[in-house]
Amino acid sequence: MSILHRITGEARFPLLGLGLGCVCVLGILVPGVVLWLAHLHAAFSINIHARLTPPTPSHWLGTDPLGRDTLAFSLVGAVNSYAISFFSMVLALGLGTGLGVLAAGTGQKTKIIANGVVELGIAFPPIIIAALLVTLCGAGVVQEICALALFFIPGFVRLGQQAAANIYAQDYIAAARLSALTPWRILLRHVVPNMVPGLLVQFSVNVALAMLAETGLSYLGLGAPPPLPELGRILAFYQVHIYDHPHLVAVPGVVVLLLVLGTNMVGDGLRDRFTRQEKKS
Amino acid sequence: MFSVATLRVSKKTGLRIVLGLALSYALGGMTSSAMASAQDGSVAVGVNISPATLDPTTNPSEGIRNVTYANIYEGLTAVDEQGAIHPLLAQAWSISPDGLHYTFFLHPGVHFHDGTPLTCATVKFSLDRARSPESLNPQKLVFENIQDVSCSSDMTVLVTLRTAHASFLSELAWADAVIVAPQSASGNAQHPIGTGPFIFKDWKRAESITLEKNQAYWGTPAKLNAVTFRFYTEPLAAANALLDGQLDAYPSFPAPEMAARFEQNSAFVVKQGLAPFKAMLALNNRRKLFAQPLVRQALMYALDRAGITEAMDIPGALVLGSHMSPENPNYTDLSDVYPYNPGKAKALLKQVGVEPGTRLKLVLPPIGYAHTTGELVAAYLEQIGLNVTIVQLEWPAWLAQVFGHHDFDMTIIAHTEPDDIGIYARKDYYFGYNNSSFQALYAAYEAEQDPVKRHTLSVQMQEKLAHDVPNVFLFFVPRTNIARREVKGLWNRLPLPATPMSNVFWGQ
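^ inputs. structure came back:
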């Protein structure tokens, strides 16, 4: 149990962590999306003759080495990075949990396949998967989402399998079986809905982890190609200025920190809510 | 999860890091590893491009030249820091008045690192290998001008050219023309054997290459006992390696933005030096679009090249207007032939009938200037209605795709060869510029022996390129040379890609 969780998760402030987390994430993503939409059809406003300027009223945190607004550029990068992490987790959740639930509900063969997937997935570090995909298919958003998803699928397979197995062992499932419901109906009516809380928590925690992994990949140049801004590549691009303009590195760094922290707090908050509900019921 | 695991530093490790830092501050001044290398007469040198092979006669990579040229391999002639031609393996030569017949008198007592003596047969083998139909030499076209190589004695080489070529002696000093021995040539890519002051010892791929002093060197022996070249792809890692003493020198430091930090540090000396550097947006002239001179001119108008040059953030950077940089005595400033004018660029594209939204692929090699410039070029071209997709490649893939298969629309690359305007006379070269009036000018330049007339012709060639713009010429940047104060003898000015180490030593 994290310290933060201990502070914010106390009964007196049951929703403080969740609320703070949402503030962190939305505080970055909402202005980010607005800027993202504003720049949808134009190259990001490069202005070489106003490069590396100090903070001004029109550029709150100054401009970067190509004269772009440092804050705006990092916020747009945050939207891209967050969207990539989010959709990769949607993909991993769908595929991983699906396979896990199937393995729990059906015979031995699916279980062997599911275990194989888990072990294979754990054996491959994400960097190797990403490097492989980039070499085979070229760099791009889709490849990056796939690489991240592949890396997180084993976790979801395990979680899905365990959670579904627990539910299948419950008496109400036996009752459903006795009342001659088809296996598909049991799955959709009883198993999946009861898995949602656990999956939601796991999902939000994994989005935070995927966000870190995504930043790592794009930092190493295995992400989407420029000019699409991504936090990792922004960091890599700014880092040569760490001595002469240290705030440049700090801006995308703090953005990553807030997004990951915020997402984690949302996940923790959700878990608290669900466990409290379970206790009550 | 890789990114999380690295964040978990145990208390013990944390303590060790703190202790280590305290210790390194306590020692002060020279770091312990730098003191060690000074004592055993070795120097660790940082370089930017990790070579894939170690044979400069079969691969154009600058990385090979930075490590092997003048250290392991030597040519018949050599250049000094100012670019003047000197005898090396050929101690003297004579040229016939028509400029077709060269007689080279080889230096006696020269041996390769495996003991093979240098004779006319070795030289004949090297030149024949470079000009043969199967030759992989990056400068094959230069060697194809050789009609015949023969030996009038063991130590006398007769070379006959097809057409007079006044740059021949300086081209023999290029790394592509180094002399290799028949029995070791095929193995040079992995284990280089030459006649130079250093012997190849060890190669940890993508990490380092170690050379040892050649105790039996035929000329003035090297002052150092060993040299280790280490490869850095990350500028920050390179800076840290210098600061913590893993490196003693970095002759072409990749991030001049950080130079100020070293200038303030009394342990280091920062120098700027001229070296051939012609950064350009190379256009595939074989593509229908770029075969039209008006489209190429439109691209020149579209780019704020002064701004792009400023974004390099290096004092002494210059906008280029043609394929020659200021270290060359023939250099003429032609940077303002096509000043920044996006309106005119759009009008030209419209005149030729280029549809707005035309897609172009910009292939980038993995080097800092290409990334910065690439993003800028994409943004500027978007402003005149062209859609640019950026593809980042590793060096081997870039070399194969662009240099080998000519499969690209545009790329950003700096040519670092000296006096190489002749590449525009080769229609088979990677950018495929085929212009008969330039080819005629170049032929006249090479047939001319008189230096004054050669200069005039060189300026005419530069002007021709500046107006016809086969490639979008971008900028020149001087190199930033950072070294520990005690490391002496490094070349500051570099007429060709190399890191000559034989005169480097630890001083005061």
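The radius of gyration of chain A is 22 Å. Chain A has a mean pLDDT of 84.
thumbs up if we can close this ticket
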